[in-house]
Structure formats: C-alpha cells, structure tokens
Amino acid sequence: MINNSGKSILLESGTIYDPYKNKKKTASILIENGLLKKVGKITPTKKMKRVECKNKIISPGLIDIHAHFREPGREDKETLVTGAQAAFSGGFTRVCVMPNTDPPLDSPESIRFIIEKTVDLPVKIFPIGAITVNQEGIEMTEIGEMVNAGAVAISDDGYPVQNGQILRYAMEYAQKYGVPVINHAEDVHLRNDGVMNESSLSTRLGLPGNPDISESVMVHRDLEIADYCGGMIHVPHVSTQRSVDLIRKYKKMGVNVTAEVTPHHIGLTEENVLDYETHSKVAPPLRKHSDREALIKGLMDGTIDCIATDHAPHTIEEKEMDFIHAPCGMIGLESAFGLSHTILTQAGASSEQVIQWFTTGPASVMGWQIIPFQVDKPADVVIIDPDKKWKFRESNIQSRSKNSPMLGIEFTGKVTSVISSKYSFGNLFD
Question: Which pTM value belongs to this model?
C-alpha cells in the first residue's frame, strides 16, 4: 500500500464504467494526490506515472455491506487496520462492519469508537449497531442514538432475533431513522446442533445437519412482519432455494425487502466439507447444487440485490479443531471479486453486471447516493482485468487470519489496482 501524496497517476485508455448510470466509455483518467483531476483525452507528462489500462475496466470502488473486523475484543483474529487492508486489496473502498465484537457495538459510544478509529484508513468503515443489548435478544438498544452516532443499519448479526415482537419494534424504529434491519435468518430450534447442510451427505459424514427450512421459516416470518408494519428488512447471506422463492414472492407483493448472497454460497456446495474441511464450515452452511443454482438465478433476475462477503476471520488454532467444535466462517475480502466473477460470467453474466452487484446493489440497500468519477473529488477507483487468470494464494491475503478454502483455486477476473483519496494498492508503482 502506497501513500498517494505527491503522486500523479495517469490511467490510460481504459474502459471507464459507471455502474450507477450503467454507462461506459474508453478514456483516460488523471489522478493527483488522490484526487481525480480529469477524465477524457490526456497528454502525458514526465511527472505522471503512466498505467496502461487497455482491455481493463476502471470502476468505482467496490462496497461490502457485511464484514467482521473483530475489533474490539478479538484483535488476534482481525483489527480495523488489517481488515481495512484486506478490503482495500480486494478492491473495496466502503465496508460495513457487523456488531458482534467483544463487547458488541450496542451503544452510541461503541459506534463512535469505530468511526473515530477508522478516520485515516484506506477504506471507509461504516458500523452496524446491534438490535438488542449485548445481542441477547431481550432488551432493545438505543437505536436512534446509535444512528445519530453513525450506525448505518441495525443487526444482531449471527444471533437471530427470535422474539418477533422485538423485531417488529426494531423495524418500526429503524423506519423512522431510514436504516435497514438485518436479521440473521435462522430458527435456532430447527437448526439445533447442525454444523452442515442436512442431507444424505451429513448422514454419511456423521455430522449433525442444519435443514434448509431453519432459514426459510425465519425468512418467511421476517417478511410477514415487514409486510405488516411496513418496515424494511434485509436478508443476509441467503443460502437456500426456499428463501429465494419467498423473497421473490414478497418483492412482487411490494414488501420492502432486500437480500444479499455471499461469494462462497454461489461458488461452493456442501461437498466442499468432505474430508471435514473446517475452512468450509460457515453459517448458514454451504447447501446443495440446486440451492447454489437458485442463488445465481436470484441474482440474475433481481431477487437478490447484491453480493456481500461475510468476511469472518478466525485463528489457525480455532480452525484446526474438529469440525463440530470449529467456529463458523471464512475470510473473503481478497477473493470475493475473483470467485464471483468466475462463477457468474460462466453462468452468463457480464463483467459489468458483476461490478453492479458489488456497487449499485449494496449502495441501494444502504440508501447511499454515490456519484463516481467527479473532478476534484477522491479518486475511489479500481482497475479490473476481466480476463486475468490467477490462483488465489496466501500471498494475496492481507487479513490477519488465513482461514480460506479458496487457496489454490484459479479465478478469472482480478482487481489489479485500487486508488482511494489517500492510498493506492496493486501494481501501479512496480
């Protein structure tokens, strides 16, 4: 990562793509001291670092609305600094961090802590506040005060709000402040002790199964509450065909619902836990091929609004435990675009569509109005080589943790460089 101060960078002859207007053109971009100075035909000078962008896409920075940076409390897994570095290297310039820290982000003071500590990082960090105190599902937090302090959404993250009345109140309060409610869609009683998708494979492996209805039952409940009170509900990390079908139905009914899918749920299946691979243990679990196909279809037809990483760092020691006791989660910021681009272009999507699912989609969920490529504004751009074939290796990981099942997998499509107002990452100054 390089400081942009005093740097003059000329991105030459790239395909400049604005996903917010769905328009593209071939042109050059001049960036000075991290600010975009000109778009169009530019005559190079000796002081400029010239970067050839022919056959590459220049896009606004990617957005991730679901990540875990573990600070405060578990800095051995990730910190705000290392999480931001991981995000930046993956092409992300905006990241929303979940509240399941220790202690949780359940007060205005904790929200301000995140904002104040991340001012100078290369990525803009947006905290999500907890719905209930200590994420215990009993007492609601001071939602309005957290939003006023800077929270951009509310969620109990991996702790589903089981009490429907509390979720209703949360939706009604959140509606007043214009922020989405994000509920981990899982009935904990139906999940029981399940550690992978319930199927013949879980039986064969001798592992307790988590049935797909544990998700879809909660999705259905949440959608009914949203329909009743007129609130907004965002469904994170959708994993099942049943859930996709429900979200599609309720969207057609006019319910204010949005949804996300992770790269690993569209790229992997339950078969990836063969050999008891703990790096592939996630919540919700990897599902069947038919579920994966339904998720992809849901993206294609607009049922699912965006892709989010659910970046979840864990230590080596934790992931080396047996499958039942190992924690759920994998890192994903550095591999997200490569995996998603590979899978989705194979399914018929364009590179521009994939970029939309990482930009306009999450921005719309959060209610952000973003105008890219403005002169004298922070650059906030990524350079993408859509045809680049590359293997994901440990050297690509900037996160403090290394728990990824993607190591050694070949992707097509790579973020080669990213430039924000203060920093650059990639091969710009090789």
Answer: 0.97
